Amino acid sequence: MTTSSVDTAAELADTLTRAMKRIRRRTMTRLEPYGITPAQARALRVLAHAPDHEGREAMRLSELADHLHIAPRSATTVVDALEESGLVARTPDPADRRAVRVVLTPAGRAALERIHQVRHEVAQEYFAPISPSDQDALLQALRTAEAAYDSVPSRRPAR
User: Which residues pair with 103 in a beta bridge?
Assistant: First the structure.
């Protein structure tokens, strides 16, 4: 790798970090009126993609922690706040009486719609100056980098 490509890669990493911080801050600000934190929004999005055998959005608390890459006690804190807001409910796991499932409520599904709208608006605002074809190229390049990074076994997230 030449010095130039090393500098470009480092600048790209710095620029991506700044972009994510700005997008995260703006999303956080826009979600604040709804009383939803970014961590809660992530948990709701993970739950929305985890239908159980009954077709409801549900998963065990330990699975949620794994998907969020956080400690189980941290997942408990997030779920406590979501439950207090009426966005999720805890139910016994029919397959294991010791386990608890977290289930998305109708209010949680409505919150997901708001979250989706906010994320879409923030992304549109941030990437508006970039042409659609450049956005597609950027997305493809980042997907390629992510796939290559994940293909190295030592770099895969622990689950």
Answer: 58, 89
